[in-house]
Amino acid sequence: MTQYVTRRLLLLIPTVLLVSLLAFSILRLIPGDAVIHLLGEQGYSPQTVAKLRKEFGLDKPIYEQYGIWMKDLGQGNFGTSITSGEPVTKILVRTAPVTIELAAFAVSFAAIISLPIGIVSAVKRDTFIDYTLRSIAIGALSIPGFWIATLVIVLSAHWWGWIPPIGYKAFLKAPVQNVQILLLPAIILAISLAAPSMRMTRSMMLEVLRQDYIRTARAKGLSPLSVITKHALRNALIPVVTIMGVQVAFALGGSVIMERIFVLPGLGNLMYTSVARRDYPIVQAVNLVFAVAILLINLFVDLIYTYLNPRIRFGS
Amino acid sequence: MENDTNYWNRQSSRGVSRRAVLRGGALGGVGVAAAALVGCSSSNNGKSSSVATSGAAAQASSVAKASSVATSGAVAQASSAATVVSTPAAAAQGGTPKTGGRLSLISPAEGAHWDPHQTTEPHTQTTWQLIGSNLLWQDPVTFTINPNVGLTPQQPDAQTIIIQLNKGVKFDSRAPYNGRELTSADVKFTYEHISTDSRSVRKDQLADMDHIETPDPYTVKFVLKRPSAPFLINVADPNHLLIGKELLDIAGDLRQSKTLFGSGPFIVDQLQPGVSISFKKNPNYFKPGRPYLDSVLLTAITDTSTRDAFFLTGKADIAYGSITQAQKKDISGKISDTVFSPAGSLAPRYVVWNWQRKPYDDLRVRQAINLILDRKQIIDLIDDGTGLLSVGPIPPALVTWALSQDEVSKLPGFRADKTADITQAKQLMAAAGFASGFKAASPSSQQYDFSFLKVATVAAPMLKAIGIDLQITADADYSAFLAKQAAGEFDIIVGTASIQAVDPDTHLNLLVQTKGGRNYGFYSDPQVDAQVAKQRVTLDTTARKAIVADIQHYLATNLDRGWSDTGSGVRAMRGWVKGWKEPAVSVQLDYLHEGTWLDGKPA
Fold it and tell me: pTM value?
């Protein structure tokens, strides 16, 4: 196992390097740059543009800029924001907890919603309950989260004169307020995440429920609940867990819109504004953070397999 | 171009007609009258005699003093060229001020940084107007210049302006200022910083400044390179907030939040990056009794729906910017105590063509586009029929300087009946050899709540009527759009130019001068450049108005771009907000809130 984990961690390095190269180059290939955005529409001379490009090191060839960035990264330095002049590390430390918490809440809610529904739908296969639950899942899959979020804000303001609390309070400082703030965006984000998990859970449960060992368990007189939870679910969960691992990536992506609508000062919001402002150091750093997070979560998901199915052995 | 030359010769030889003098005099008179009235309402604003005595009263008397002392040059112009605009709701001003309470404001997004001299972003500007103070105070309704940190300006000659400072103006009591007194050295440092910083967005406003002298800690002497009509109003720009040198020592510039210290009515209390910033009353503010409010909360909400809901649910006391007629109706039905007031727009809409590309160098094509634009339809579709016609770079809200609506409505392309315009437009296109039209690449942007895209989609069918196929590409990404615009990678751009200035000089310089920063179409006409330069050094207001009018007439004929209209905004605030002198135009002017108070706001 240790050997496997070490190997996977080592494999992270080329992947992260590739991501860093893509993040670095793609942002520079699209029209517009940080200096033009910084100077805005108010008017500027070519001399001013040249001076600022030099100041930010943007006058150097791209490969040289990349080299400098990688060297700084090697020393744990993400650089300085072009627009605000703040160290990027400081900005990441401030914004990352918001997004991590939102994504964790969303994926947890998605699991809480999808697993029972998927199981019930499979057990009550081809009944009215199954059709209803599947229709709801398809509906949730079809409706974009940002639309639900906007409706929640607009309609509750119009009908009840209420809007959800906005901003962010750290869990350790104000746990109740923290949950109040994150509950709604996390649930909305979870709705679209839950649908595929629910459908996967249902499919896998149907598959497992047809197996001989389930019939044997029932013949032995085990209660239906015991058959489903102890024998069927555990075996059905492996692909579901894989899907949920992938969903963390979706949750991180979905956080961009949710954070904007609910005024959450997280990585998603930061990423959006930084792309618009061409704040290269921030965009590159957030991309790297997202990439590393997703890779580590995938590794974690792979390790969970061994718990769910002891026959799976890594490294042998 | 021969015609053009003749035009200018004709205009310059004409001199100033008796009618023009009378008209200018009448406008100036109305301006002064408005200034006087506002002076009265200013005292009403500070009618707080029991609570705050000296501040507003001193200001009101200083206004009168400014009018009497200032005799010539830029000072005289600043007082007599008061721009007449529609007066905001007076109802919100009345009553005896009460102290205490928290005012809740909204901005459309947290700024990219906190340097007030390097950005036009509302969040940063509002923040600094709350915590900073200006040398002179520009009345947000009449745009007259009033004493603030500085006393009444004196102008011994056309190129010298002397301003004495109030004694006892203190900076924030916390480090790095530690409550030290604001002196002439700080004024000098501020204006030199604004005029020399390569990233300063308003350095052009101070281009006429040669140097600043500080004979003593309470005297500032501006020495100009040449006589400058707009200089004083530019010095009084609400975003020219005074700073001390030690602020720049913290991080080299003012971009980081750790530099948010000033000498204004409020001080920063708490900052939640990306969400909100709260301010509390500055106990050492130099105007006794002010501000009335205990605190102010400024929340940055990017999403438009969330921002609207924030006001609709009573979380904000003043809606951000101007609202639409539809929003007004909606808000009226939900919040009965809302006070609505007009907020003139400083953002004329236009169709700008690329002068570096053919066939836009052909006057007939430009005339055809100008004729085919149906301004009334644009106003009806985008502004519910409440906009104003704009024939040039001077927004019609600045009625002292812009051509009158009556005059504009008779110009080709602006007439209500489009029949003759459409026929003529088609004839012009045929005469230019484009009877079957042509395609025009037209990048647009989703920025600013789709304001560019909205006008472009309304204008496209109009242009199609003369065969111009507008190929609109809407960039979700504003930087990409800016890059295309700056590089001239377009045939036509339909957009708006919001310029936060109340003197025509800034609008003319930025929009129509050859080197103007917002001359997106690369228009270049030495005669226009000369006239723009001439109005800048013309200290006599009547003569300057005549030049500005001439420029507008010339542009209406020569067509630097196809100007269209401005929206007619409405501001909304809760009935309990009192004493705030609402800006007459929908830009970030006067967010000092030193005179704002709350009456009956629920706790």
Answer: 0.81
